[in-house]
Amino acid sequence: MTAIGRWTARSAVLAGAVAAFAFGGTAQAQGSGSATLDASVKRGHMLCAVSGQVPGFSLADSQGVMRGLDADTCRAIAAAALGDASKAKFVATTTQNRFTALQSGEVDVLSRSTTWTLSREGNLGLMFAWVNYYDGTGFLVKKSSGVKAAKEMDGASICVQPGSSTELAIQDYYRLNNMKFTPILIQDLSEIQAAFLSGRCDAYSTDASALATFRFSQGPKAEELMLLPDIISKEPLGAMVRKGDDKWFDIVRWTFAAMIVAEEKGITQANIDTFMDSKDPDIRRLLGLEGDMGKALGVDPKFAYNVIKAVGNLGEMWDRNITPMGVPRGINNLWTKGGLQYAPPMR
Amino acid sequence: MSATSADPRITGARLAPKRRIRLSWSDPTFRSIVWQIVIVGIVVGIVWYLVDNTNKNLAARRIATGFGFLDRVAGIPIGESPISYNPASDTYGRALWIGVLNTLKVAGIGIVLATILGTLIGIGRLSSNWLMAQLTGFYVEVIRDIPLLLQLLFWYTMLQGLPAPKQSWRIGDAVFLSNRGIKVPYLIWENAHTWASIAFLIGAVGAFMWNRHAKTRQEATGIRPAVWPVALGLLLALPLAVWAVLGAPMGVELPVLRSFNFQGGGTVSPEYFALLLGLVLYTAGYIAEIVRSGIQAIAIGQWEAAGALGLRRGAILRHIVLPQALRVVIPPMTSQYLNLTKNSSLAVAIGYQDVVSIANTTLNQTGQAVEGIAAIMAVFLTISLSISLFMNWYNARIALVGR
Lengths: 347, 403
Description:
A: D-Maltodextrin-Binding Protein, domain 2; 2 domains; 13 strands; 39% helix; B: mainly alpha; two-stranded antiparallel ribbon; 13 helices; globular; disordered N terminus
């Protein structure tokens, strides 16, 4: 899309969202008990807000298919809720209009590398369903600048996206260390990256994951850029939904749990059919062969099967999208392997 | 239809001013009152419905409402600010106010520069010099045909192509041009400077009065007393004298290159400069056309008559044509000033922190989109109405007085 096109599109989302508050009717649950699910079924697809600009998270490939961890998260939820991963429709949002888009009902899920914070849950009328990436704020600098640590950057100009939690994290970090910086705040991701590469800023700061994938996407020039070792904040990223539709929240949350259980049990996209005659009660419940887990959520009993068949387990999703960017899984691994991903029992 | 056959309702009202209102649909006064009540009722009803529905929707979605967030500590970084700002202690209210000041800073200077440039180009289009007329015509066509957003991105990208601070272009040790902006020496402000400024203002008033006096004398006697020596004395010599008497302090803070950036001195940031440049060049294209059409609207006989009196072309333009053209030019010019001010909100694309940019960040961090958008609308409405009011007043002042 051209700069102008992106511009109008994002203004339209924000304007539309505000108008939705003024003109829209109040949501009422009926049918499945989830207004969002009912609306998605009726519409024929689920609307999922992504960035559309970040390699490894959501970026259209040469065929125009959205690829990345956030995009696959959307597919997994669509597979669970509607039984078909291809029914996830992607809506490109910016850091500034993403919450309004979700609040106003323009999208059903926000899967846009969004950090889980107290004020976002408390003030925005949104709920955080699950973390798909445990991240932290980092700094990318040019090797030629000679900077080796964040503490050496007193007086630096730093490129950062407005409206992000990064913005607040850097402010806190500099305050804590009695240092000063000049923020260069540009909304458009490609514009801010261009500003960093041209030398307008000494550092580019955002989630370390996005920095790593951005560095990777620079190809041979990646060698000229360096990710500082300092990680200055906790940024748990993942999927958010609106408050007021708890059934929908349940579906999104347990979609993640299903992918984690599948990884724990060694169930993958390729081998899932061999588990259909498994004797393990956990696996039988997961795959809808026993119990009525799907019914409790108001979706197909085989929802977990659909999810894994479509996008694989959590590890596969990581390997497909993040591993090629050269980022180790680290704390994003399963709890059994020293990571933080831990699913409550599905029973 | 002739001019005398005016609207019968009006003439009727004039003939019988004290006629009683009959409660009948055939009574025009009664009808108009009923219609006005109905229309006001509809407008109030729609506004009430929108406000009420918005509140219900926000409550149903459990989104925080109200303007209480303006008193909360902002914590958002702001790149450039005309007043002091500390994210650790200042509020969202102050952050938004900085946005308003930043908008005024670019719009105010932009309007002045665009008017000067646009007028010069507009006059240039009518030049008898072929090259001048073609070049200015080319400028107007090109500038008007490219979307402003693209122009802003173009200028911003160009400015980023400047060298890094360590290799910056420089004039001595005082002025530096790099991709961090233009760095200039900064005058250390002292009392003497304040008094000199006051003296300058007094001088300006004095010069204005003297000019009026000269005009009166000229009209009475035909002899115009010399204005410029007096004006020069009042505007320049007086403040300089005050400054000299108070000890002529002249402390200058030079920008110095530290590890990352220049410290000290004044800065024109690339974001501000790109926005100002883009807005001025773009709006000047439109103003040029307004000025050209205004000049062409003046009857050719005015030129010829002035020429017959022996005035040169420049003098005709200054004393005869432009003052008359001004009457034609002011109303569309007001639109351009309003456009420039509103277009300044494109700042957000290139990272200049105007009111829209800061309000966007605020509504994103607080989640209060409705309030944030309302604040942006209120700010632009206030600025735009102020410009309109001023321009309407000015327009009324220079209008031909019918006698």
